[in-house]
Amino acid sequence: PLDFGTIPSSAFKTAMFFVGISTFLIIGTILCFSLFFFCNAATVYKVCAWMQLAAATGLMIGCLIYPDGWDSSEVRRMCGDKTDKYTLGACTVRWAYILCIIGILDALILSFLAFVLGNRQDNLLPSDFKVEDKGECSE
Fold first, then answer.
1. Is residue 139 part of a domain?
2. Distance CA 58, CA 52 (A)
3. How far is CA 22 from CA 36, 57, 100, 112, 117, in A?
4. Which residue ranges does UniProt annotate as crossing the membrane (predicted)?
5. What's the first-to-final CA gap in the chain, in angstroms?
6. Which range marks the domain in which residue 61 is found?
């Protein structure tokens, strides 16, 4: 079991929360692919697009908050006294943080593509299926 008391900084806890929510949103997007059997493809694309956009936002928030915890005593013990918020001192940023930034770009690109596909699917529908007078009540 995960013990949040062992995480050295509240910034690390907050970043972990946002990255965790983003991970669940990405897994949810994959599970939404099963909706293609039951729903209109354009609707599924748009749902997945919003989920990917929310995941990208969560990852971005997590990546921006994470360096705020570099001034914790545990990080100072490992990286030296010159370590402060957003300054790592003797340590370096490694591949996991960089991969998370790439994940942000990936989620943004995928959400953009899903929005484009969703709008194209709407345009491909025959006129019989299109809803006329959206938002207006018929008398």
1. no
2. 10
3. 22, 8, 11, 17, 22
4. 15-38, 47-67, 95-117
5. 59
6. 8-123
Q: Which residues contact 16 (CB under 8 A, 6 or more apart)?
A: 7, 62
Domain-located, residue 135:
no
- DSSP-based three-state secondary structure for 35: helix
Residue at 89 is within a domain:
yes
Tokens read off for 132: 């006329």
Runs of H (alpha helix) within the chain: 10-31, 41-65, 73-79, 95-124
Residue 75 structure tokens: 């990080």
pLDDT per position as a tens digit, 91-117: 888 899 999 999 999 999 999 999 998
DSSP letters along 2-28, please? --GGGSS-HHHHHHHHHHHHHHHHHHH
Instruction: Please tell me the pTM assigned to this model.
Output: 0.80
Q: Does a structural domain hold residue 128?
A: no
Q: Which residues are CB-contacts of 73 (< 8 A; sequence separation ≥ 6)?
A: 8
In Å, how far are 27, 28, 82, 114, 129 from 31, measured between CA atoms? 6, 5, 45, 15, 26
